[in-house]
TrEMBL record:
Main location: membrane
Listed GO MF terms: D-glucose:sodium symporter activity
Protein name: Solute:Na+ symporter, SSS family
Organism in which the protein naturally occurs: Spirosoma endophyticum
Transmembrane residue ranges: 45-63, 84-110, 122-141, 162-187, 193-211, 223-241, 270-289, 310-335, 355-384, 405-424, 436-457, 464-486, 498-519, 540-560
Membrane topology according to the record: Multi-pass membrane protein
Length: 561
């Protein structure tokens, strides 16, 4: 087990401790552990300068990306005029994925159970490969702006409308609300202000880029921000390792079970059957069908750049271990008696970063929030504007009108996200990481079913797809509401693991869709778009990149098994 101090000396008491891994040495030769308090009390002039300089740089990057070049047609807010290369795609997808929830949740789960949560990032390479090789060629060949539009080309207007509204609900809840909640949670930890004030200030700042510059501005900003995130988080990890006494000391002082990726089926928190069966349900919906993630690929210059960009995020996800999980494990070794594991990340920051570096921490918090919330707001405005407004309300809308509606949607999305973030804050009985995964687990099953069947089974009918997206979605979300709010698992022990529950819902909906398709007497079956062989065949560069990633990921699983 980690090295545990017998007693902690603080300003609230004068008990002596025999040993303490980190802290400030008092005049009496005793260590004083600094509590996880208001970081603003420790800010120096250099910190304020760093934050101001960052905001200026961010504004300049966003402004340059927002202003159209002379001689070019007006740009839209939505797909960056098909101008994104592989690096921008990878960083933007990673920036969308790595929100405040990643900093909080991964450090929290690292503190309490070790590296098992890394499965939610490393296991993703399977589904990223599926996106790059199977889904992306179909999306780009169809020349669509949104996922509902893609399904609408195959099954008609009714399917597109149903999926558009479901996609809007998914973006509002799983992206905007959860991301904003995590950001507000961090700000509440740092500043000590109420949640409603935290989320209000954060959403106003994050919404600025989606309102003014759309996907192109967000993608440009995310490249800069993710490089910054890597630098700051890696610095925190290195400082923690040095305090513990080196990597060898880290491995020795953490419980042996903390270094295992695969936990036994009897494990109550993360049994391997739950991850093996339940995670793919969410992963297919998240990586292969989610507008917020796929939109970067839709904005690619060409298919190869899109496939390489998806491969790039697979490599970036390897960094989740040293950047997000390991700080939690280090915190367990250094501060094993935290009341709330969700405080692990900020506890490390307030105790390890010297004065002058705290400004960088605030900068990173802003960066991850802008990346997630900005991308989510852009996806929300894209789906509503293109799939609802342009089709149902004003089919003859000009580009200027579409941009105006897209910006109004951003404002409405900000207001809704604030309300949902406050509701999520009331959920009890789950740790922070499980809140994110369980919410996604109840939203994902209908999407995973309809997209997988559409791509892999040509016999799938419109009636089956529409039934799953409407009645099936109501069923899945209804179970989720009961699980999270009505009969929470901390009070009612009859529930299975939330990942297994998600898989059960997926299986029910999948069987239902297959039966409806087979029994449909007048099936409406889509005709796939005919693709040129050079449009769907991965290039040599793409295969090299993906084979290299697959070999690396298999090797990592063998090392940490």
């Amino acid at each position: 087990m980690g090295q545990r101090p017998l007693k902690i000396y603080s300003s609230l008491g004068k008990a002596k401790q025999k040993r303490c891994p980190v802290g400030k040495l008092s005049e009496k030769g005793e260590y004083v552990i600094k509590p996880m308090n208001n970081i603003t009390d420790r800010l120096t002039a250099l910190d304020y300068f760093i934050v101001l300089a960052y905001l200026i740089i961010l504004a300049v990057i966003g402004y340059k990306a927002s202003v159209p070049k002379k001689g070019q047609p007006d740009e839209t807010l939505f797909l960056a005029n098909k101008s994104l290369g592989w690096a921008s795609i990878g960083f933007n997808m990673w920036g969308t994925n790595v929100g405040p929830s990643m900093l909080l949740a991964f450090a929290s789960i690292g503190y309490s159970t070790g590296i098992v949560a890394i499965n939610f990032d490393w296991y993703a390479f399977v589904f990223l490969f599926l996106l790059a090789i199977v889904f992306a060629p179909k999306y780009l060949a169809a020349n669509v702006t949104t996922m509902p539009e893609f399904m609408g080309q195959r099954y008609g207007e009714s399917t597109q409308t149903i999926l558009a509204w479901y996609a809007l609900i998914k973006i509002l809840i799983s992206w905007l609300s959860l991301g904003l909640f995590a950001g507000g949670f961090l700000v509440r930890q740092i500043l000590g202000i109420p949640m409603w004030q935290s989320v209000t200030v954060l959403v106003l700042f994050a919404g600025l880029f989606a309102y003014t510059g759309g996907l192109k501005a967000i993608a440009r900003v995310n490249v800069f921000q993710m490089i910054l995130l890597i630098g700051v988080s890696l610095t925190l990890t290195i400082l923690g390792i040095n305090k513990v006494g080196g990597l060898e000391a880290v491995f020795q002082k953490a419980p042996i079970g903390y270094w295992s990726l695969i936990h036994p089926a009897s494990d109550t928190k993360y049994p391997w059957p739950a991850i093996l069966l339940g995670y793919p349900v969410a992963a297919v919906a998240f990586f292969c069908t989610d507008q917020s993630m796929v939109q970067s690929v839709l904005g690619a210059k060409n298919l190869e750049q899109g496939q390489l960009g998806v491969n790039f995020i697979g490599w970036l996800k390897i960094l989740s271990l040293p950047l997000f999980i390991l700080p939690g494990i280090l915190c367990f070794i250094l501060f094993p008696n935290l009341k709330d594991p969700a405080e692990a990340y900020m506890t490390m920051v307030t105790n390890l970063f010297p004065p002058g570096m705290n400004g960088l921490v605030i900068v990173v918090l802003i960066a991850v929030l802008v990346g997630t919330i900005g991308s989510s707001l852009n996806s929300l405005s894209t789906v509503f504007t293109m799939d609802v407004y342009a089709r149902k309300i004003n089919p003859n809308a000009s580009n200027a009108q579409l941009i105006k509606v897209g910006r109004m949607t951003v404002i409405v999305g900000c207001l809704f996200a604030v309300g949902m973030a406050l509701a999520i804050d009331s959920i009890k009985g789950l740790n922070l990481f499980d809140v994110f995964q369980s919410v996604l687990g109840f939203i994902a099953p209908p999407l995973s079913v309809v997209f997988l069947l559409t791509v892999f089974w040509k016999r799938t009918t419109r009636k089956a797809v529409n039934t799953v997206l409407s009645i099936g979605s109501a069923f899945s979300l209804g179970v989720g509401i009961v699980y999270l709010w009505v009969l929470p698992p901390d009070k009612y022990s009859f529930w299975p693991h939330y990942l297994l529950l998600s898989f059960a819902i997926f299986a029910i909906l999948l069987i239902t869709a297959i039966l409806i398709s087979l029994l449909d007497k007048n099936p409406a079956i889509y005709t796939p778009v005919t693709l040129r062989s050079d449009a769907i065949k991965p290039t040599r560069r793409v295969w090299i990149a993906w084979i290299s990633l697959i070999i690396t990921m298999v090797g990592l699983y063998l090392v940490f098994d």
